[in-house]
């Protein structure tokens, strides 16, 4: 599993716009760079990121080989009710990782 850092406010008022920040540790190898032996390193990138709130998609990003290693994303959403945010990263070679964070709306 890759290491992730997720920043979600623990609490928010109903109707507030909240900023969510996520980072995942991943090399994001493009498939164009030669290795130490001169052979091209195989592509290994995260191709998709999705954030869902209680099962409903609130943000999606498609990532490409030009994305830097350890991709960092920040986005906003409106806090409507308390619940759980689910973050999923998918990529080459069967990479699939999901993390969750809760938010309390008052």
TrEMBL record:
Domain Sulphur oxidation protein SoxZ: 9-101
InterPro entries: Ig-like_fold, Ig_E-set, SoxZ, SoxZ_dom
SUPFAM superfamilies xref list: E set domains (SSF81296)
Top-rank lineage group of the source organism: Bacteria
Database matches in Pfam families: SoxZ
Official protein name in the record: Sulphur oxidation protein SoxZ domain-containing protein
């Amino acid at each position: 599993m890759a290491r992730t850092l997720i920043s979600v406010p623990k609490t928010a008022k109903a109707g507030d716009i909240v900023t969510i920040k996520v980072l995942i540790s991943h090399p994001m190898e493009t498939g164009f760079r030669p290795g130490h032996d001169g052979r091209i390193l195989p592509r290994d990138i995260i191709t998709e990121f999705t954030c869902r709130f209680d099962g409903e998609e609130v943000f999606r990003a498609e990532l490409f080989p030009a994305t830097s290693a350890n991709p960092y994303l920040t986005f906003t959403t409106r806090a409507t009710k308390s619940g759980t945010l689910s973050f999923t990263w998918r990529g080459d070679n069967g990479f699939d990782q999901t993390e969750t964070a809760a938010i309390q709306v008052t």
